[in-house]
């Protein structure tokens, strides 16, 4: 069993190392193909390798897009429903226990276990033995939930989030006396347009099974300035064309700060991405949504700015 896991882990790491290289070669071939089709001159960076890339183009007509992390890590998504375990850090407070119970209701097909004296390695071995797809660990600081770790099995990735402004169901007056729907929810993802944003979106998306069309439950993940706002609603259609929403809870904001190419107990796993706080442009960057498009200068703007008008 241990040898098989080690072999599968080596194969996974090797496939991840080839992923970026295959993607780059595929994109360069597509660029050459588009240039030849349009009849334009080759870009400078492609001229050196144009002969080698062009020689293989005739054999690449039926080539599919190269494999990605979704093919390697989430190959069973949509075929088998995810199986999730929710737990806490050691010696949790009553508020963290309540938050863990509510997060167990957020994820369908999830189970909450008491942490007790289990160490991380024992938790990971239990998850692998029972075919668990994801392990969610919640942390706190002085009784306030402040962190969440999502580790995907059997080989990763593991994503670390900080939590902010956590409000439990009982803090939301509109729904505190009702029960929580157990339907598979519809998902809304807003403003995850960069490569990193798509990576985080996939990690969150595959925590949920495929919903039915008539499901009346919806989860929203809205990104703004790299803070992901989570909201949980149920809705009801009112004829003829109205929809009534009711917030269920819990609600919170989360911010990713690290992605590792391995499960939670593998401290030697490579860091795929780490948030750099102390860089000069940290406040100007939008890592999950990508750079904002630069506004085009119009005639009205030039009239308002005399320097631009004089330069013309």
- Write the CATH architecture name of the largest domain: 3-Layer(aba) Sandwich
Number of domains: 2
Elements, N to C (H/E): HHHEHEHEEEEHEEEEEHH
Return the average pLDDT rounded to an integer: 83
Q: Return the CATH topology of the largest domain.
A: Rossmann fold
Span between termini: 72 Å
As an assembly, this protein is: single chain
Determine the strand fraction and express it as a percent band.
25-35%
Global morphology = globular
Using the CA coordinates, give the radius of gyration.
24 Å
Write down how many β-strands occur, each being a DSSP E stretch of 2 or more residues.
11
Number of contiguous helices:
8
CATH superfamily of the largest domain: Brix domain
CATH class of the largest domain reads Alpha Beta
- Major β-sheet, in short? 11 strands, mixed
Structural class: alpha+beta
The parts where pLDDT drops under 50 for at least 5 residues are: 307-312
Q: What fraction, in percent, of the residue positions are helical?
A: 25-40%
Region (Disordered): 284-312
GO molecular function, one term: rRNA primary transcript binding
InterPro entries: Brix (IPR007109), IMP4/RPF1 (IPR044281)
Protein name: U3 small nucleolar ribonucleoprotein protein IMP4
Explain what the structure shows.
A hairpin with a 3-residue loop joins β8 and β9. The protein starts with a helix and ends with a helix. α1 crosses α2. It folds into two domains: 69 residues, no CATH class; 195 residues, Brix domain (Rossmann fold). The longest helix has 37 residues. It has 312 residues and is of the alpha+beta class. Strands 1, 2, 3, 4, 5, 6, 7, 8, 9, 10 and 11 form an eleven-stranded mixed β-sheet that branches. The C terminus is likely disordered.
């Amino acid at each position: 069993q241990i040898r098989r896991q080690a072999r599968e882990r080596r194969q996974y790491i090797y496939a991840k190392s080839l992923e970026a290289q295959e993607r780059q070669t595929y994109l360069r071939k597509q660029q050459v193909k588009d240039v030849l089709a349009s009849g334009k001159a080759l870009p400078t960076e492609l001229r050196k390798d144009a002969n080698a890339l062009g020689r293989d183009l005739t054999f690449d007509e039926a080539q599919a897009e190269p494999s990605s992390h979704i093919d390697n890590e989430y190959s069973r998504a949509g075929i088998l429903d995810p199986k999730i375990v929710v737990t806490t850090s050691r010696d949790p407070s009553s508020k963290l226990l309540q938050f863990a119970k509510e997060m167990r209701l957020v994820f369908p097909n999830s189970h909450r276990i008491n942490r007790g004296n289990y160490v991380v390695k024992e938790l990971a071995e239990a998850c692998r033995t029972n075919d668990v797809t994801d392990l969610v660990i919640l942390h706190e600081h002085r009784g306030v939930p402040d962190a969440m770790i999502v580790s995907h099995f059997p080989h990763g990735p593991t994503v670390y989030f900080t939590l902010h402004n956590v409000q439990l169901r009982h803090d939301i007056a509109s729904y505190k006396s009702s029960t929580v729907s157990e339907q598979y929810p519809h998902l809304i993802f807003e403003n995850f347009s960069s490569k990193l944003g798509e990576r985080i979106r996939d990690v969150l998306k595959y925590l949920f099974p495929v919903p039915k069309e008539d499901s009346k439950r919806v989860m929203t993940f809205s990104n703004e300035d790299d803070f992901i706002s989570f909201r949980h609603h149920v809705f009801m259609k009112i004829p003829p064309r109205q929809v009534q929403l009711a917030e269920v809870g819990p609600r919170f904001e989360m911010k990713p700060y690290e992605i590792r190419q391995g499960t939670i107990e593998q401290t030697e796993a490579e860091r795929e991405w780490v948030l750099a706080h102390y860089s000069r442009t940290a406040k100007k960057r939008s890592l999950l949504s990508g750079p904002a498009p630069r506004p085009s200068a119009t005639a009205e703007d030039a009239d308002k700015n005399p320097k631009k008008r004089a330069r013309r």
